[in-house]
Design goal:
Layout (H helix, E strand, L loop, with lengths): L7 H8 L15 E9 L2 E8 L4 E6 L7 E7 L4 E7 L4 E6 L12 E5 L10 E3 L13 E6 L5 E6 L7 E6 L5 E8 L6 H7 L12 H5 L12 E6 L5 E5 L5 H6 L8 E5 L5 E6 L2 H4 L7 E7 L2 E6 L10 E6 L4 E6 L13 E10 L2 E8 L9 E7 L11 E6 L1 H5 L9 E6 L5 E5 L13 E5 L4
Parallel strand pairs: 8-12
Antiparallel strand pairs: 1-2, 2-3, 3-4, 5-6, 6-7, 9-10, 10-11, 11-12, 13-14, 14-15, 15-16, 17-18, 18-19, 19-20, 21-22, 22-23, 23-24, 25-26, 26-27
Length: 446
């Protein structure tokens, strides 16, 4: 044996969001194949990680002491590797393609060049023990009032949800810290106790809420949106649970779409839920983003609920504690693979105006709709259908990586400087390439 990499590669992939958490008790990132090539005067070894979907690059100038250089996003499960030094290229190929998976296989062609790596676009700093903060599945973002800090949340892929503090003033952006969301004061537990002990599948009950609270009082929610709270801390939008079968057959399902105010320490302070009459219409695909503005919480709901043809923009008055609802007209699905179109994020612009992300559930060659729209709620009556204005087609931005177009734009933030950012959700590297792209759009709102 010339060299034992030990846990080094696992930690490096955790730092860039590529840890396949569901494989940690089996083969980890599962290096599946290697290829060697001399580029310029340097020998390189390329290591294909099947489960984490990256190709790790090592400088082999000293064969008994390889030096890690970078990770290349490898589409879904790269396994075949070929180096072509005469053309300055390395090619990877996915192991298999499955039309039923969210991500698709691909050939990736990489060119040798003397430049800073284009990937990752976001990585984590170390915990106190010297190991990187593990992360994945970023699903919502909001900018701090000033500077270059944004806050992000991970979604239901993980069973103890966190709020991340991200420094986007550097490239790549850096997750500086993590904060566990907890029910330390039993606020969520008390809310659950106000519900019936057990109900049929038409409404959530004590059992459903109890399942959201772990033994150590961390919480198992589905955070899909985050906003700064004027009272301090954050608002978290948690999407209700449900099954695809229940949605498609038109039955109401057990679900809990919740808004939770948490302190700056991550402790739940308040729980807000929808009116019973609206909950009675619940189906899969609920809360997808939240923004506090002018004393109100504005929530984007991903898709239409039972008996409706458009998703709702829900508005909760924090003082009156009342709800209003508007309907959002989605673009029709145009992908050759069919699928659906829905909302996946909302961000406040001030003066009752908001940015929303509208996207289809397709990726790679099937993706067609990834768009940023502006809506204005000024004077909008309860029950009205909103008008939207296209701000930017995001497909060119996603294609700019020259890799597969990623499906899930889940986080959106507008910095105090006016710069707009979005981030993709990598689904915890579960049937996904694991690639996360934090894309900087610049001051596109000027």
């Amino acid at each position: 044996m010339a060299f034992d990499v030990g846990m080094d590669l696992e930690y490096r992939l955790a730092r860039i969001g590529h840890t396949n958490d569901r494989r940690n008790d089996a083969k980890g990132n599962e290096p599946e194949n290697v290829a060697f090539g001399r580029f310029g005067s340097t020998d390189y070894l390329f290591v294909a990680s099947e489960r984490s979907s990256v190709v790790a690059v090592y400088d082999m100038s000293q064969p008994t002491a390889p030096v890690y250089k970078q990770a290349l996003p490898g589409a879904l499960s790269p396994e075949g590797l070929v180096t072509i030094p005469s053309r300055g290229l390395m090619v990877s190929a996915s192991e298999m393609d499955d039309r039923g998976l969210p991500a698709r296989a691909a050939f990736n062609i990489y060119a040798y060049q003397k430049a800073a790596p284009a990937y990752p676009t976001i990585q984590s700093a170390d915990r106190a023990d010297g190991k990187p903060i593990p992360w994945a599945a970023l699903s919502g973002m909001v900018a701090a009032p000033s500077g270059s800090t944004v806050y992000a949340v991970d979604d239901s892929f993980f069973r103890a949800n966190r709020i991340f503090t991200v420094d986007v003033g550097v490239t790549p952006a850096v997750i500086r810290s993590e904060l566990r969301i907890t029910d330390a004061n039993d606020v969520l537990k008390t809310f659950g106790a106000t519900l019936p002990a057990a109900r049929d599948n038409q409404a959530f009950d004590q059992t459903d809420v109890a399942a959201m609270i772990n033994a150590d009082k961390t919480v198992n929610l589905d955070p899909e949106g985050i906003s700064l709270a004027s009272a301090g801390g954050f608002w978290i939008a948690s999407e209700g649970a449900g099954s695809k079968t229940a949605y498609e057959t038109g039955r109401n399902i057990t679900s809990a779409n919740l808004l939770l105010r948490v302190s700056a320490a991550g402790v739940i302070q308040e729980v807000v839920t929808l009116p019973d009459a609206v909950n009675a219409l619940q189906a899969r695909y609920g809360f997808e983003g939240v923004a506090e503005s002018n004393g109100k919480l504005v929530v984007a709901m991903q898709r239409a609920w039972l008996g409706e043809t458009m998703p709702r923009i829900a508005v909760y008055d924090l003082t009156a504690k009342t709800w209003q609802f508007h309907f959002y007209p989605l673009d029709p699905a145009t992908s050759p693979n069919g699928g659906w179109v829905g909302l996946s994020e909302i961000t406040a612009l001030g003066n009752n105006r908001f940015l929303v992300v509208e996207r289809d559930n397709q990726n790679g060659p099937d993706a067609r709709i990834k768009r940023l729209y502006r809506i204005d709620l000024t004077g909008a009556a309860d029950g009205s259908t909103l008008t939207k204005t296209l701000v930017r087609d995001l497909m060119p931005d996603l294609r700019a990586t020259r890799g597969p177009v990623l499906e899930k734009i889940e986080g959106l933030a507008v910095l105090a400087s006016g710069e707009v950012l979005f981030v993709t959700d990598n689904d915890g590297v579960n049937d996904s390439s694991g690639e996360t792209q934090l894309v900087r759009l610049g001051r596109i709102l000027n």
